[in-house]
Amino acid sequence: MRQSGFATTSAPIPAQDSTRFVHKSVNMKDLADLHIHTTASDGAWTPTQVVQAAADKGLGAIAITDHDTIDGLSEALEAGRRAGVIVVPGLEISAIHGAKTEVHVLGYFFDHQYAELVEQLHILKNSRESRGRKIVEQLNEAGVNITFERVSELAQGGAIGRPHVARALCEIGAVNSIDAAFGRWLQEGAPGYVPRYKISPNDAVRLILNAGGAAVCAHPGKQVGDEILVEMIDQGMCGVEARHPDHGPVTTRYYEKFAAKRALIATGGSDSHCIQGGKRTDIGSVTVSVDVVDQLKEAAAQRRK
Ligand SMILES: [Zn+2]
Ligand SMILES: [Zn+2]
Fold first, then answer.
1. What spacing in Å lies between the alpha carbon of 41 and ligand 2's midpoint?
2. Could you say which architecture CATH assigns to the domain 5-112+211-304?
């Protein structure tokens, strides 16, 4: 019964260049951009600025989907009420399938006070720092005198990773190269090895469902194989993000059909960070019909029953 809402608008088949998505004959009020980042994660604009930009464009709805955090939602929802834009509470969880296939899972319409969700997001957000601390602790126990403070300095405010620990090890002369630091101290089986905290795509889907939300695989065309999608569908995932700036027309079409065949919701959004790595993706440059918002809301409500 569920299907993509695209058929109800005359929005064009998306092209590679996402700035050409907007079609003159479509009323912007009928469109929704369901994938946007803010300063709560790695976006350049605050939630209020994002909502204002959506209002200026006349968009009917947007979803705020920050990486592993829901910290921007309250501000966005409030700004949406003021600006008359529907703001869908969302989030994008970074999951890992197997050893290293990154799978991003979008959640919509969940209860953002649900304790398990809040706790898991807290763990995800802090996992890099706590892993760094644990590595240093283990190295100290093994008799290597580096400090977490020095490792943080080497990360220069960015996410702390093993390369920073390796550099600290080089500095004190424990090893004479980064490679040697990994080999002697940091790789699996070495004294300073601490596994990275991982959440699987299936767990991410279940987490969103437990919180009463609708789960959707983000930009599957980037690296997610169909087998992984099928597993996630078995867990209760209800949609795939067919429209995304990294999906060309062929990929978009593929996932629209994939969704239609399996009664999934085909969603879409700009994945706007405003500016990322010098590249600008505008809010509203990739959209779907606002009907998709209702479909996601309905899917979440069905799950809660
Ligand atoms: Zn993503
Ligand atoms: Zn994203």
1. 10
2. Alpha-Beta Barrel (3.20)
